[in-house]
Amino acid sequence: GTVTYLMALPMGVLLGWDLRWIIIATGIATTLYTFVGGIVAVIWTDLIQTIILVVGAVLCAGLMVFRLPEGPAQLFRIAREHDKFSLGGFGSSLTEPTFWVVLVYGFIINLQNFGVDQNYVQRYHAAKSDREARKSLWLGGLLYVPISMVFYFIGTALFAYYTAQPDALPAEYRLPGKADSVFPYFIVTALPPGVVGLLIASIFAAAMSTISSSLNSSATILLNDYYQRYVRPAATERQRMVVLYVTTAIVGLLGTGMALAMI
Predict the structure, then answer these.
(1) Helix axis angle, 19-66 to 2-15, nearest 10°
(2) What does the buried/exposed string (b/e) look like for 36-70 if buried means 16 or more CB atoms within 10 Å of the residue's CB?
(3) For residue 229, pLDDT beyond 90
(4) Model confidence at 24, in pLDDT bands (50, 70, 90)?
(5) Do the beta carbons of residue 63 and residue 190 sit within 8 Å?
(6) Confidence (pTM)
(7) Are 189 and 63 a contacting pair, CB within 8 Å?
(8) Strand (E) positions, the chain?
(9) Residues 42, 213 contacting (CB under 8 angstroms)
(10) In this predicted structure, what is the pLDDT of residue 200?
């Protein structure tokens, strides 16, 4: 529900559509292909969506860098002047986002993600062997850092882009609470039409890959940890599939309803 709602915010700016219709359309589409295809649909659509997302992000970052009035050097100069490449303070405070707090948090949250989160673990179980599962774990972990750096760089590039061209960003987008609308505004006003389409697809892709993973893992957990353990241990294949189908549909409806309620 949270992911769907957060995806709808920039899409509302990009497309000018009502948030409710964006949420409903995304919820139906994602629930439908997860319902029909299960883990196979989740993995293959995630692959395609990840490629679209990364290509769109790299392309966008490149356009920001080379569209500055004075070229790429201006971006790095502005970012350095405003301390945008800082890794945070190195003090001992635990109440501020210091380097050490972020490092420890990142280490623990990724241990959780890659170690016990069903969104990730369900993929290891689908691998052909333990060796292939280990390869997928290492690939995901090693790609996490450079891909994250691209998205952090986009934030810095946006700051430099509109600092160098203050008249290009309306005053309403500089108000508190409007930061999340700046990137969609840049996409609509500064990118060529074909690239805008790619970026719209990448934002949808980012949300749908997370939603489909959550739907599939929720259904699997309910089947294995509850239905087969407490309700019907000797369930037939047909009965297990019915539980998976029904749970996927219900969780999809609940998630979509939660996103609508967040409006």
Answers:
(1) 70
(2) eebbebbbebbeebbebbbebbeebbebbbebbee
(3) yes
(4) very high
(5) yes
(6) 0.76
(7) no
(8) none
(9) yes
(10) 84
